[in-house]
Design brief:
The complex is a heterodimer of chains A (141) and B (133). Chain A is mostly beta strands and 141 residues long. Chain A contains 1 helix and 8 strands, in the order αββββββββ. Chain B is built from no helices and 9 strands. Classes of the chains: A mainly beta (141), B mainly beta (133).
Chain lengths: 141, 133
């Protein structure tokens, strides 16, 4: 195909549009405190489990606090920016400060199997659904 | 040190029309801090999702250009149910004062999605104390 090069970009474009369509969807209903608060969260479904992907560049991994209780996940921490002494700042777009956010999923989670990974400024939370909450096929007798 | 405050989300800004690409996918501007010391100019750019292999930095005709590509494959087979931000590659360029920096000594470091560029000043532009006679 002559336009082969454009293909992966088309896929990205489609995905960007899919993300846009879900922007602030009511899937989390009113259960999420502080929409517009840092850090911004995207939630994805993968099979019967969920993955939350959170953009938080430039944060020391050890300063991120994560707690799971029931179906709620709390993310807290702080971001510091150090320009060093004797620096004159020309442009300041990055912001520093503290954050504390809780999201509640409308499904039951298995708290013991929740795991997290922080890489390249992105926090990924793997949120497996509780076995009791998974849909079961019902046999008609 | 920046003052402590409650962090709020910064809406991602898209690359302006002046620098459009031929492909439809959205490209974002990395949030950037620029500060100067006696010896160097430091440029700090936030590009979450970009690893060191996918950041391209170049200086040509006194224009510093940075491009960062995210690993889009990580999102394969994920179905979005709730979103607060969009994802995409990053690109941004800055005009540098001509002949002010030693191009060959520019260094770059990438950590936690943050790119730090250090541009050492050329000898002739460093501040010089003028002795009074």
């Amino acid at each position: 195909m002559a336009l082969g090069l454009a293909d992966p970009f088309d896929a990205l474009f489609r995905f960007q549009r899919a993300l846009e369509q879900r922007l602030d969807s009511d899937w989390l209903e009113n259960a999420t405190s502080g929409v517009g608060a840092f850090p911004p969260i995207n939630v994805f479904q993968q099979g019967s489990d969920f993955i939350a992907i959170i953009e938080m560049p430039g944060i020391d991994k050890d300063s991120i606090g994560l707690e799971v209780r029931g179906n709620a996940i709390r993310i807290s921490g702080s971001k510091t920016i150090d320009y060093g002494s004797n620096a004159s700042v020309h442009r300041r777009e990055r912001v520093a400060g503290s954050f504390d956010r809780t999201i509640s999923l409308p499904v039951k989670l298995d708290p013991d199997r929740v795991s997290a990974e922080y890489r390249d400024g992105i926090l990924a939370l793997f949120l497996p659904r509780a076995e009791s909450d998974k849909p079961k096929a019902i046999k008609i007798s | 040190m920046a003052p402590a405050q409650d962090l709020e989300v910064q809406q991602k800004r898209e690359l302006g029309a002046r620098d459009e690409s031929t492909i439809p996918a959205r490209v974002f501007l990395p949030n950037t801090d620029i500060f100067e010391t006696e010896d160097a100019l430091t440029v700090v750019m936030e590009m979450p999702g970009v690893d060191r292999e996918h950041a391209d930095i170049s200086v040509e005709d006194s224009v510093l250009s940075v491009a960062g590509r995210i690993d889009f494959a990580r999102y394969e087979k994920l179905y979005p149910v709730y979103t607060e931000y969009n994802i995409g590659h990053y690109r941004r360029s800055f005009n540098l004062a001509p002949n002010s920096f030693d191009d060959r000594k520019i260094s770059a470091e990438m950590a936690d999605g943050v790119l730090t560029l250090t541009l050492p000043k050329a000898e002739r532009v460093k501040p010089r104390k003028i002795p009074l006679r």
